[in-house]
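Design a sequence for this backbone.
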């Protein structure tokens, strides 16, 4: 998968500029939050800035970092899977994580939408692994290590720290439900190192940067959110249409019911025909229900059974809690983490997009466990038929392996076919689509021919990877002009900066912001900044869209419009 997808991981324009250019700005002396707007805690951008200092500011530095992080992810998933499955079964399960998470084209982990998410995911999985080790050994050092990982995750991306912390607390409650002294001691052993890392970092930030900038402007604790971000999160979480989201979850649960009924029917049809007939009826009923729910979902559900994951995980969690601490706690612990990390998308678990890779690894391990362990064991209990259970286990294993094998082939073809246009720059080589590539390359060639290295160049509303790859500087504090993020004062500051620095060129990228409830910069949002630019700049050239100077943002054809400052 690494060879097939080589240098095809970057998604230009969207988010990529923030990830590549921000660490360089920090390395050049700008301050996070104060000089460069940022939504997440500080660890990842400063870590990437350190990588630039050691290895140079190059696209491959971040991508090699992503490769090593992905290898660590696979290793952690393998260690977690071994708590649930035998070695060979663990390997097959982790292959699913490699294909569906590490190399998913729309959200791979080598060049992720946010390295903060990758780093926080690794820390959360490390905390989960140490929590599993504690459940086996009851050694204090495992809790201390888990607490350290949670503290580091808290200064990387908070939702992953929260998922790991909830998992650890639930584990201690599960193991020590009758021993409050052990429970309190365990909580302190984990909480103190976590606080020892997170508290000084946030205290220093508040002292040097200030509460208004961190909390009200950068929304570091998910407060004072602009309407555009609320709109975006409501769409992602399924809260925009909660009843429809619940309906789709039930449809996905019906898919699971149909698949389970079919496996049971085929496995038991010879020795237990009566049970097999009931299983076939269950399969048919669930299939009809899934089809009905799919037809009535108005295109909002692609039929993926992953949408029902919260229901499956909750059922597994309750079942394992009822078994008590005397039973193997690994399934309970992994189920708690898997459910907690899905909290942000609980009503709308993604099967694609940029986010699924970060939320799904442990859920995929549990899906393999349910297919090859839980369902066969239940079938044997219902039918007292060991051969039927063995057949069900073989079918479950085969379905899972066939799914990731087919997906690997499809993803490989997609990487080679879609990202086939090569772009060579002083700071790295990448492949992108035939629609975007020629325009992107032409813009880079214009920048190289008409500007000097280190010159300021404004790219709006998003696309500062153009400045990074060309060796130019993005002057604005906001690298991504998301609707609602700039206050009136911020717009004034941006206008004054462009005027003061006499920025010669402004590039307008055809990057509609529909996911935030608006489309065109200058027309639907930030009209004041857009109007000032229109008054003080003229169209020098347009790459794409047939060279039309009046091409609007949101046009079907990708373009980059170069505006030159009027004398």
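Sequence:
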């Amino acid at each position: 998968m690494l060879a097939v997808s080589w240098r095809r991981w970057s998604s230009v324009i969207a988010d990529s500029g923030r990830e590549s250019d921000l660490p360089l700005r920090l390395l050049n002396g700008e301050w996070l939050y104060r000089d460069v707007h940022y939504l997440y805690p500080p660890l990842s951008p400063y870590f990437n800035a350190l990588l630039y200092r050691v290895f140079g500011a190059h696209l491959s530095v971040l991508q090699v970092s992503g490769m090593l992080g992905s290898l660590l992810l696979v290793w952690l998933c393998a260690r977690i899977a071994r708590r649930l499955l035998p070695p060979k079964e663990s390997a097959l399960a982790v292959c699913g994580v490699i294909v569906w998470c590490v190399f998913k084209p729309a959200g791979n982990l080598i060049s992720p939408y946010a390295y903060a998410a990758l780093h926080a995911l690794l820390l959360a999985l490390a905390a989960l692994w140490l929590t599993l080790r504690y459940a086996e050994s009851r050694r204090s050092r495992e809790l201390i290590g888990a607490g350290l990982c949670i503290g580091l995750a808290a200064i990387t991306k908070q939702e992953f720290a929260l998922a790991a912390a909830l998992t650890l607390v639930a584990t201690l409650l599960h193991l020590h439900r009758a021993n409050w002294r052990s429970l309190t001691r365990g909580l302190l052993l984990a909480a103190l190192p976590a606080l020892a890392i997170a508290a000084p970092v946030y205290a220093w930030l508040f002292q040097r940067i200030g509460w208004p900038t961190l909390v009200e402007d950068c929304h570091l604790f998910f407060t004072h959110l602009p309407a555009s971000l609320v709109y975006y999160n409501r769409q992602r979480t399924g809260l925009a249409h909660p009843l429809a989201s619940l309906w789709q979850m039930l449809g996905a649960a019906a898919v699971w019911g149909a698949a389970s009924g079919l496996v049971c029917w085929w496995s038991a049809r010879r020795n237990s025909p009566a049970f097999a007939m009931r299983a076939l009826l269950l399969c048919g009923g669930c299939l009809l229900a899934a089809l009905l729910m799919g037809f009535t979902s108005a295109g909002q559900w692609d039929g993926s059974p992953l949408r029902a994951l919260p229901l499956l995980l909750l059922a597994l969690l309750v079942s394992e809690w009822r078994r008590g601490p005397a039973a193997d706690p690994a399934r309970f612990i992994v189920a708690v983490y898997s459910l907690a990390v899905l909290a942000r998308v609980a009503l709308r678990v993604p099967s694609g997009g940029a986010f699924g890779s970060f939320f799904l690894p442990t859920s995929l391990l549990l899906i393999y466990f349910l297919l090859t362990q839980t369902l066969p064991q239940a079938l044997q209990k219902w039918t007292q038929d060991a051969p039927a259970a063995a057949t069900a286990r073989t079918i479950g294993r085969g379905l899972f392996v066939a799914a990731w094998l087919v997906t690997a082939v499809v993803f490989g073809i997609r990487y080679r076919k879609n990202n086939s246009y090569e772009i060579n720059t002083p700071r790295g080589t990448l492949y992108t689509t035939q629609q975007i590539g020629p325009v992107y390359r032409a813009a880079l060639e214009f920048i190289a021919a008409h500007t000097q290295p280190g010159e300021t160049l404004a790219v709006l509303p998003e696309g500062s990877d153009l400045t990074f790859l060309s060796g130019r500087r993005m002057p604005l504090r906001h690298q991504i002009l998301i609707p609602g993020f700039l206050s009136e004062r911020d717009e004034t500051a941006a206008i004054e900066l462009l005027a003061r620095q006499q920025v010669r060129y402004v590039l307008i990228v055809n990057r509609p912001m529909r996911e935030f409830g608006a489309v065109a910069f200058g027309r639907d949002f930030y009209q004041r900044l857009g109007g000032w630019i229109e008054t003080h700049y003229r169209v020098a050239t347009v790459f794409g869209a047939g060279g039309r100077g009046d091409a609007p943002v949101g046009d079907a054809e990708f373009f980059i419009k170069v505006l030159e400052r009027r004398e």
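The beta strands are 421-425, 428-432, 458-460, 505-509, 537-544, 559-565.
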